[in-house]
Amino acid sequence: MAIRFFRNSKGVKKSKGDITFDIINILIMLIIVFLVAFPFWQMLMVSLNDALDAASGGIYFWPRVFSLESYKAVFSNRALLPAAFITVARTVSGSLLSVSLTALFAYALSKPRLVGRRFYSLFALITMFFSGGLIPYYILILKIGFIDNFLVYIVPGAINVYNMIILRTFFVAVPNSLEESAKIDGASDIRILFKIYIPLSVPAIATVLLFVAVTQWNSWFDANLYIMEKTELLPLQAILMRLIYQSSAETEISRIMANQGSDVNITGESITMATTMVVTLPIVIIYPFVQKYFVKGMMIGSVKE
Amino acid sequence: MQSNPEVKKVYTENRLKTKLRNFIRQWQLQLMVVPAIALLFIFCYIPMGGIVLAFKDFSMRDGIFGSPWAGWKNFADFFNYDEFGQMIINTLGINLLKLAFSFPIPIIFAILLNELVGTRFKKLTQTVAYLPHFISWVVVVNIFMNLLSTGSTAIPGSAGVVNKVLMALHIVDKPVNFAGDGKYFWGLMVVSGIWKEAGWNSIIFIAALSTVNVELYDAADVDGAGRFNKIFHITLPALSGAITICLLFNLSGMMTAGFDQIFLFQNDLNLKNSEVLDTYIYKTGIVKRLYSYSAAGGLFQSIINFAMLITSNTVARKINGVGLF
Fold this sequence. Notes:
- The structure holds two protein chains of two kinds.
- Chain A contains 14 helices and no strands.
- Chain A is mostly helical.
- Chain A has helices at residues 16-47, 51-54, 69-75, 80-109, 117-129, 134-143, 161-172, 176-184, 189-200, 202-218, 221-226, 236-245, 248-260, 268-304.
- Chain A is 70% helix and 0% strand.
- The longest helix of chain A has 37 residues, at 268-304.
- In chain A, helix 4 (80-109) runs antiparallel to helix 10.
- The model of chain A has no long low-confidence stretch (mean pLDDT 85).
- By secondary structure, chain B is mainly α.
- Helix content of chain B is 71%, strand content 0%.
- Chain B is built from 17 helices and no strands.
- Chain B starts with a helix and ends in a 5-residue tail after the last helix.
- The chains are: A mainly alpha, B mainly alpha.
- The interface between A and B is large, with 100 and 101 residues.
């Protein structure tokens, strides 16, 4: 990783001020990287540490007394498996539903010849800036029977206007000539969309897919609001939230002690940390691989606007 | 052209006929629009109609149409609530602090990143900086509580990293109760908000900077411009469009303080400084089921936000020529 310290990209020698600036810049970036990465790392280390020993603090970069006890306890939590299933199910079905419906909408809106285009556009745009508020929305969900219903996770939020705009911008940028020659060959609108536009828009679609998937994975509040009795419909984040805020960690510990006897080595803290890691690590691991796709898509989407 | 009413009538009729013909010809496109419009109508516009709840004395039994009208009573009750003023102060306080601190940081980060030497390192920093955006607030709050913990007095040295560092540097002599003491709450919102979103928010600025013509910088070099000169005269102006749009988005959300973050950091100890409109509306509406009362608060929020949006958009248009619409 060669860094040109003393000459700039044109090969000209840099001034002292410039070099100082560069060095300080690099230091600042290093500090930022540390500030972001360290909290995760530390939590991981503490979760891999024996629970009672961890309570005395002082664990920063490496576990003092390595132990997988907390993780064993987490995986024995009977609520975890259904929750993992729910989280994966809503992420996959929610993303697919949202991206397909939003892409269809965006494609149609990208065609100037669409009758009613301005109306549809305005219709969508207004929803970005004005809403009825939480209570009317909640009552609506109640009235259509989406309480304690898995569909509440994926149907109401399926159309995201912000994402639609990103996709529409992308579709508009595709040269008209492609569509024209396809029309001459007698292709229908749907055919053109699937055979021409979609293959060309993979970065944008991947970006939107990623946005929606991450939102689905991290959702907890809708579960809190709309799931009253069917706790098997709770996703991972909601389970985690209950561990931290509703002290269901204590209940867990009692349950484990009842099963394994009271010399078990876990605390509410350690369960919470281990669960946090279990819930977060999939994202942290997948993320670097997906990152290059969406950055490209984001850039193109935001620059045009 | 004659403004003969006969001519006009035929002209309009022909326009409509053409529109209808095109509409039928493009039936596939029109079909594509249907699910989106239907969903938006059901889940966005029907709730907008639910605004009437704020003007009624709603009860589940009577339903929306059967509940009696209450005029402005719900609003009066809401505004007369003892802590109403404090909630507004908290909401605005947090948002203004965020505007002052969290708003510039993504911009500065984008500029510094733009100046950074070494492409591999640049990519690494970007990857790391965007990461917290992908973590849920539940996890982020957990991480912060862990870092800021005061530990237990029975076990010395059990405090979280931040307190340990503060004590080691002799800035304080015992752990600071960041989570429990209300006076740190606003600052905590700003710092945790920055940690989570600053990297992500900088993407739009990085994108804007990537469109700047490199030759501008070269020309500036020839003219003998130093680093800061180049930043002020080339980099910043290139960002002005993106900055305006972001500013408008922020201003149009002044009455909304962000539910997830606040709700998760709130507790009984810091409630005085942490109760904002969003959390109060949730508690009274969903938990206490005071539907009409809460709906009035929600409508108040929406209207103020909307008014701010229109105002700041108009002002931005006048000054910059750029606006959201």
